[in-house]
Specification:
alpha/beta; Nucleotidyltransferase, domain 5; 2 domains; eight-stranded mixed β-sheet; 15 helices; binds adenosine monophosphate
Length: 401
């Protein structure tokens, strides 16, 4: 019996299968370029790894493809689809309504629809995945796990924008924060690794999207992303926080409208915009190593924002016991970690150079023995967190097959 976790994007469907109870990962797959003439399907289990192309016109066909892979006799996994007893969905935006994961019913679907204005790219795609499951796995309980939910605890003084208050209320404008499932997983693991439930933790999720969270005793006290995932740190192609007057100037001088500038801040900015090379951290590093000054500047800006946010969040938490790095960059780039932490010795942070540079994978400490602050690398595993929530929410359901 297995739990399926789905992360449904506008043209992609990622799926993972976890054994019920043990939550061991049994299979993982991704279908990309759904709706294009030819989609790419990658799939792996303990016994096989495969990649091929096929026509996948929509998400429902994508889910059908995933189910046929999971029940293929060569994959040795599920005899038939009745082996899937619950599905957990990653949902980007839960608005003010969802402060934790919930079982999906019509009311929840309507509420996710109502949040579309806050997550115009992701929520409709998440709903496509949910609807495909309703059609193809009828009667199987489904859970929604929201990227925003973990940050519902951020105090009002930290999540309110300093605009006329009536607009904040009228349009429900405030900082929601994202990557919540990742920060929650990191907080859980950091507590396990240190054996402490009262940690003052700064969690750094550094991937294509980047965000940080100040977490006290497992509770989010502040985070860098805002109303949308455009706010906060500099990212692969996103600018992060910016003086809004820049928008006005660009609209005037470049004859753009506000939508055009927002698109620019989302897709052509960040590492890509500054370096002019790429939004991919590795490519920017390579360019910097060959003397590209814009690439060097982009990397310096990238770590500067993270470093200054560590300072800010130390103030938020009244000190810091642990700093954790996750995401493609956070997990893999020892250079990024050491640049981010350089100059923070005054906070009692000391890296162990060798441990930082040893890329052995898995969760690990990389601070020196003398460091007052634990520094750790914790590989992201949002899917496991979604499976855990789904398992908990569906464990006692009589409707479960
Ligand atoms: P994610 O969104 O978590 O998959 O992370 C993607 C980012 O991680 C990209 O910018 C990659 O360049 C970066 N990344 C992945 N592997 C490495 C690595 N070994 N060293 C540096 N950056 C990496």
């Amino acid at each position: 019996m297995s739990i399926m976790v789905l992360n449904s994007g506008s043209s992609s469907l990622k799926f993972k299968i976890f054994e019920e109870g043990t939550l061991d990962e049994e299979a993982a797959g991704v279908i990309e370029q759904i709706g294009f003439p030819s989609a790419t399907i990658r799939y792996r289990t303990q016994y096989l790894t495969t990649e091929y192309k096929n026509s996948i016109p929509d998400h429902e066909t994508g889910l059908m493809e995933a189910l046929s892979l999971l029940t293929d006799e060569n994959s040795g996994l599920l005899k038939d689809i009745s082996g899937i007893t619950a599905v957990g969905h990653r949902v980007l935006h839960g608005g003010d309504r969802f402060t934790k994961s919930v079982l999906i019913n019509n009311d929840v679907i309507e509420a996710i629809e109502e949040c579309i204005p806050f997550g115009p790219l992701h929520n409709p795609a998440n709903l496509l995945g949910i609807r495909a499951c309703l059609d193809l796995l009828p009667g199987v309980p489904q859970a929604a796990v929201f990227d925003t939910a973990f940050h519902a605890t951020v105090p009002v003084y930290a999540n309110t924008f300093a605009i006329p208050y009536e607009y904040s209320k009228k349009y429900r404008i405030h900082k929601f924060g994202f990557h919540g499932t990742s920060h929650r997983y990191v907080a859980l693991k950091a507590a396990e690794m240190t054996g402490r439930n009262d940690l003052k933790l700064i969690s750094c999720h550094l991937g294509n999207g980047c965000s940080m969270a100040a977490v006290k005793g497992g509770v989010s006290m502040d985070t860098t992303m805002g109303l949308t995932p455009l706010d906060g740190l500099m990212m692969g192609t996103r600018s992060g926080s910016i003086d809004p007057s820049v928008l006005q100037l660009l609209c005037d001088r470049e004859a753009l409208n506000i939508d055009g500038v927002i698109r620019m801040l989302n897709n052509q900015s960040g590492l890509l915009g500054v370096s002019g090379v790429s939004g991919d951290f590795r490519h920017v590093m390579e360019a910097s190593e060959t003397g590209n000054m814009r690439a060097r500047l982009a990397l310096e800006m990238f770590s500067y924002r993270i470093r200054t946010t560590i300072g800010t969040y130390s103030a938020v938490l009244g000190g810091v016991d642990a700093i954790a790095f996750t995401g493609g960059i956070g997990e893999n780039s020892c250079v990024c970690r050491s640049e981010v932490l350089s100059g923070l010795e005054y906070l009692g942070i000391e890296l162990d150079k060798e441990a930082n540079e040893k890329n052995i994978g898995g969760q690990r400490f990389i601070n020196s023995g003398d460091s007052k602050v634990s520094v750790m690398v914790i590989p992201a595993n949002e899917e496991l967190m979604i499976a855990m929530d789904t398992d908990e929410l569906t464990r006692d359901l009589t409707t479960k097959r």
